Amino acid sequence: MRVLEGLKVLDFAWSFAGPMVGRTLADFGATVVRVESAKRADFARYFGPFPNGKRDTEQSATFENCNAGKLGLALDLSREEARPVAREFATWADVVIESFSPGQMARFGLDYETLRALNPGIIMLSTSLMGQTGPYANIAGFGSVGAAFSGFQVLAGKPGELPIGPFSAYTDCVAPRFSLFMLLAALDHRRRTGQGTLIDIAQTESGIQFLAPQIAHYCESGQIAEALGNRDLAFAPHGVFPAQGEHRWVAIVARNDAEWTRLAALLGQPYLAQDSRFATLAARKANEDALEAIIADWTRRQHEDDIERDLQAQGIPAHVVASPADFVSDPQLLARGQFIRLPHPSMGETVVESARYRLSDTPACYDRSAPAIGRDNDYVLRELLGYPPERISALKEAGALT
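Given the sequence above, the corresponding structure tokens read:
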């Protein structure tokens, strides 16, 4: 038996931040019904990547990764006929997940107060960019906007240059981790008290948590953190250096003078450890351009695997900067089952990432690929809600199941 078997989840979320929560619940046994309409398909379906580069909203690797394991229900909530179905599902569900703009669930008649009246133990997880309340609540956007609001955008880039921001929709990747443990806490609270919960996750606030050192430093000193590129205030060298070949790189850091001494010896220039420009951390920071030029002159003449092996053998942190090809062939990831292959109706097979958590007694399982829109309509309505065939047919004729 999987640890979340028996948990019933109604998932209205889309893009990344909400769907990844439902995906994790499904991995560990929850029955997750993914509600979506072809009239306004999940934005993640357009992200790709797609097989052979040909856009197909039913073959998006991003959507697959966020929604594997779920059942698919097509429900057009813009139609009045569809909304009673959603409310009946809320009486079936233990958990409702949504990531619409604040206020949209109320306009559908599916806000927490309405659903709680139908199901007092319901837990609703609402995840949005800025949260459900406050002057910025109605600001719409994705994780790149969240990264700007939370302070990351200005910190990612080279000193003195335009900020480039962190890779991808940063807060979309961070917020699900907060959402998940809050949701598990709410389930435990309901187990003990019988009470449901409304959880309001602001993606921007989730991102801010990871800037606690910079915020604390500002509060103490008044100094505002700035972009450092690949450098670090506490270490030198600390950076990414070119290796032999095109677009090959190695990340290297010397955490103290002893590691710098061993690195200088590997460079074939042991005397650099006593050079007044580099003998101490303060000196190395003051002469960082020259230091990095010396290291880069050596690394670009070496194979990246040799650099990694030789430095690690000396206790110096170093690792090849992985390309996508490196990632999918990494022996560590392969040994831990990072990539899951699932049957897919149009692709033959799809590949998704495994669960982010490894539980020894109740491991994750992977039952099905992400749903095409409406893939499981008949099963979900018939088996989970007990609808007779004539009611399902009436909903189809009314255009509610699109």
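The mean pLDDT is 95. Try to locate this feature in the token string yourself.
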